[in-house]
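Q: Here's a chain of 514 amino acids. Please give me its 3D structure as tokens.
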Amino acid sequence: MKSAVRGAMITFRADPFIVPDEESLTHLSDALIVIENGKIVAVGDAAELLPSLPPGTDITHYRDALIVPGFIDCHAHYAQTPMIAAFGEQLLDWLNLYTFNTEQAFGDPAVASEVAAIFLDEQLRHGVTTSAVFGTVHPESVEALFDQARRRNVRMLAGKVCMDRNAPASLLDSAQRAYDESEALIGRWHGVGRLEYAITPRFAPTSSPQQLEALGALAARYPDMPIQTHLAENRDEMAWVARLFPDARDYTDVYARHGLVRPRAIFGHGIHLTEPELDRLAENGASLAHCPTSNFFLGSGCFDVRRTRQRSLPVLTGLATDVGAGTSFSMLTTMNEAYKAAQFNGHALSAVQAFYLATRGGARALGVEDKVGSIAAGMDADLAVLDMAATPLIRYRMTRVRTIGEAMFVLMMLGDDRAVRDTWVAGCRWMPSGGLAGAFGDQHRAGAAQSILQGQAFGIDQCRQKRQQAPGERCQGHQRPMAGALPCAKVGEHGNDDEQYQRDDVADGRFLPG
């Protein structure tokens, strides 16, 4: 049965980083989007399409609103939702102090399911209908995430984090386990509904060469499958990678030599990449996820989107919240931060370019542009409806805009979750199930408060000691020299971080189904 959504609408017909804004954008002041079986079957001026609808067609008419393609978040960590807005120093300290501690709970299916539901409802409340999401090392975390995503019918790429060193022992798998558990999840979830599995090494420092080899072998078995990881986020991280992989010519080469740089490989951050690395990403069809909010939060640097998009070999680039280092689920807030990052890099990011990164650009980065990211016949009917009068200030400011580009800029600079009036997922209007309100009971709150009061966040007491010590000194209670700004680690809890790290998971160099 057909239904329709009516109102002002924008979508993209071209890339505004390549052609002028006005040539890339389609804007209809009174559009009709006709939907059937979760797909868009027609789009055009309402006056032209209304007579063609069957009598009694359900039409949802939005006034003082702008209908846009459902937002696409190219990089997020659902298991970090409980620790969003956790104070930290920079990336490596933050991982040690908070992230690993939080993620240890996700072997419990009940915890994983509860947080997955909160995460997905927050995404939908902010108009996000497609995302690439990291689980934890526990297969249960991915099972729960996919189950909750299937219930909401969102489009999602997700995978089990793989890491076999430089993390707490309870978060370590092995090369063979990473392969076997990932393949088991692929068999259960890849292609179910709107879900896809993504091969997910956390980042190079937490995977041994053997594990990267195993994941490369898995990727070779599934040549069209997404891959997601991190790349060149932080200067200290890059120095660490250089020590761990001395034979690699650069950070990108660590992944490339294992077959992990290819179409549908999405690399989070990419702030500090060299020109040759950008060339290699572009030549191999890989993508970057621009995470401005978390880049600012952790002081990682300013990603230069013009450098990746407006070059002779452009790199596919999408926008990402990177929750929980990113401090907002809002793609509007993330566009706001992307604008500021561009200004720090000496150029302006237009609203048209920002919205492109959050919609069609993100779809291209994830390799799903034939399904989402645009409002056009044949596409999934994923829509975000933005309220042009969401707050008194937005309402007032909109009385003075002259162009659709100005209106979009107001929304991205002043908007947040309040500016998302409705979210449509595969032709159905999403109805909030409560979101964060009432999600955690008193027991959860008491437990969280108790762990905070007792200072049980992973490594807080021990690892803060390094701030008073020079590189090369030993942290009290730890068994290896401190390494400047690198994370402090207890042997047996974090594993071994030197390049001679070995595991006996590979027989004859081949990784086979378990």
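Q: Can you summarize the key feature?
A: Residues 2-69+375-426 form a domain with the Urease, subunit C; domain 1 fold (CATH 2.30.40.10).
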